[in-house]
Structures are given as C-alpha cells and as structure tokens.
Amino acid sequence: MASKKQFFNLSYFIILLICFDACKKDEPIFQNINHQDFFISCNRDTTLVSSEGVRIIIKANTFQCVSDHRVHVQFAAILDKSDMVLNRVYTIDRNGDMLESGGMFQIQDITTGADVFNKPIQLLVPANPKYLNFNMAEYQLAKIDGISVWARTSNTARISKGEGALNGKELFKQNCASCHNAKLRDKLTGPALGNVHLFRSKQWLRDFTKDSQALIAKGDSTAICLWYEWNKSVMTGFKQLTDNDIDQIYEYIANQSRVMEIGQDEIKYETECDLAKRISKYDSFGVDTSIVENYTIDTNSMTYRYELALQTKNWANIDYLLNVYTRIDPITVMLDKSYENTSMALVFQNRNIVVPFYQRLESDGKFVLLNSIGKQQINFPIDEKIWIVAFSEASEFRYKVEEYTTKKVGNNLKFSLDSMSKEQFIQELKKL
Ligand code: HEC
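A: This is the predicted complex of the input protein with heme C.
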C-alpha cells in the first residue's frame, strides 16, 4: 500500500498556529492542571505513587541537596482527553501530524528550580488497555514562538507487563520469527500472521501452536487444509510454552497488526478447502472492542505500564505517531453565528487523540481542523467515531459536544452552541 505522508511546511504551520485560540491570550499553557506535591529527602532513593497510579522512582541525589535535605517535588500529569480539551493541550507533533498519547508528564524540583536532573527519574505509567500500543515513543514539549507542540526524542517508551518484562515480542522472536516474517505481512517458511487473531479462535491458536500435528490427527479441517496448502511442511510444536505464553505471542501479533495498520483483507486466511470466516468484527482501522475479549488486551489497566525516564523538568509525552493511509475531505465546522472566545477540538472516541480546529478569521469564520488547512484532502481514518467539542468562554458559558463519524467526502458540519454551565460541560467532558 502506498503511503503518502503529507507534511506541513513548518513555517506555514507556525504562522497558522499563532492565530489560533490560546495563542491570542499569551497565557501560560497547562495552567489548569492539578499538581501533586511531594516532599522527599534528597539523599535517599524514593518511590512515589501519584493519584493516577504513576510510580515515580527517584534515585538518591537526583536533586541538589540543600540545607535540610528536603526537596519539594511537584508532579503533573495529563492523561484524560477532557484535561486536554480544557487546557487546550493537543496531541500533534511539529508537523501538525496526529499523535496518540499514553500520557503527558512533568516533574519539577520546586526547591532549587533546576532545569536538569542529576539522574533520570523513572516513571511507570499504567497503560490504558483501550489505547494500549506497543510502539510508543517519547516526545518532549517544544515551544515554537510560544506555541506548544510535541517533538520526538530518540527515546522509545518501553512497555512492561506487571513486574516482569513483557515477553510476547521476545517469545515471538525466539520461537516463531525463523519461519514467520516479523513484518507479519509477508510469507517466509510459514504463512504471514498479521491479524491471524481475527480469523482463528484463541483456543485453536493455543492448540495449533502447541502441536499442529495433533490437531491434524484429530481431523481439524483448518489445520488439515493449511498443512496441504503448505505442502505438508511441519510446523514445530511448542509444548513447552504455557497458554499464557502463547496468549502473549498473539497479543503481540494483534497489537503489532494494529500498529502496522494491516488491513482486514490484506492477508488471505481462506485456504483452498476451508473458507475461513472472520470470527469477529474489525473496523477499518484498529482493534474493535468486540474482539477485545477474544484477543489483544488485558482488561486490567494496571497490567501494562509504559516506562519513561525524565531528565529535565520539561513536559514529556508518550506517543505513537498515527500513520493513516486513507484520505478524506477536510473536516470543517460552521457555527450558526459568531461566539466570543471560542475553542474547538476534535476528540477521537477510540483513541487518545485531541486535535485543534483553527478559525478562518479572514473570510467566513469557518472552523477548519488544523491538519485540514490548505488541503484538498487529509490523511484521516474513514468511519472513525469522533466528537467535536466547542466551547465559548464569554460572560455566558456555551458549549456543544457533537458526535460525528468521518466520511470519505463532505465532512462539513454546522451547529450552534448551547448556553449551559461550565460544570455541566466538565461533567460531559469527563465521559469522553
Ligand atoms: C519451522 C518453521 C515454523 C516455526 C518455527 C513456526 N511456524 Fe507457524 N507455521 C509454519 C508452517 C509451515 C505453517 C503452515 C501450516 C503447516 O504447515 O502446518 C505454519 C502455520 C502457522 C499458523 C497458522 C496460520 C493460519 O492461517 O491459521 C499459525 C497461527 C502459526 N504458524 C503460528 C506460529 C507461532 C506463534 C510460532 C512460534 C511460537 C510458529 N508458528 C513457529 C512454520 C513454522
């Protein structure tokens, strides 16, 4: 599949950003974020747990020791889409491309105000299973002319399961990669395995992986057909792997398929004698909730953690750069009239992504999604369920949360803002 990434011209992007909402007021960003304060000893190892369940591991002498050895540490986190909307914090990189965030974090040494820490501070961030992603990278807040965007660092954000290391990837490498292409799209000695979890049941995958020959002997039609199709080459049995090990391998394959955006029909699972039916619904893009029980992701949000090391007091963000190959018409919103001091953002229902709209001041006052500016078409998922959130903070608070599903053509919306309290708005945002 051809990938045509559209990149913003950086200077163009900056000029546009200067005009959009928060920039007008030149106020400090992230001002409404709740901070948590901790007082720790500068010369001892300390582990803190934030109210969001983030473990903060601070080694002795990470901070400068002052007279009484006490350091005032402030921790801030933005994990919810509601916090992003309210604070006008968006998940876009410096090219205006969309990022899927696993959380944004900042640690400050209030006592000395140091910019850089003597040692990296390790963060273990509970990964929301709904948005779990194995290819996260670390981004840092970058201000360009006072505008906040996220800039990729060279660090990846490691992911771990519970106390031990996540081993689905490792198990796949050690046991399967010699015959199954790690790119999951192509054949090797064995078939391509991308999205295999959508076509075979969990129990079948366990049985097949442990001993495919035993399945064949039992008369399992899928196993028999595959075996003939692959000229009776025998797949090694993996009796030594536990169900849990095997599940982790397919969790890895499921997530990796999503990360690599392998389409539902890209890999043929029908063999000549066995017309495999897809066992579950799969949307044009990611892992559908209907298959979550069958495969992929643990329902216990504490099970997976992103690991991140903070070296400075700058904000860090765990992100995945969303590569989208489908193209749709730009998303625009026309409000019924002009409201004072209006902010507008697009919030994905099934991803942790918040993208700002920019108001075309010069002509009709239409709001255009930031990555739509000046484009005939944009790279954006089709049939993606989104909300468009608009609020006007004038003497009278008004807002609207409009649900929408993206189409290939004609994404032009029109609505008005309703007069309601800010408290109501915040309540509604929390549910996003
Ligand atoms: C020695 C090579 C080899 C190794 C190692 C191997 N496979 Fe296979 N695999 C095959 C072949 C060949 C087939 C085709 C079916 C057959 O010949 O029985 C296959 C088929 C499969 C299928 C069936 C695909 C479908 O259409 O349903 C799955 C699933 C699978 N392998 C998973 C794995 C996993 C997981 C591992 C590692 C734990 C692994 N394989 C290791 C060679 C291998």
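The longest strand covers residues 99-109. Residues 1-28, 277-302 have pLDDT under 50 and may be disordered.
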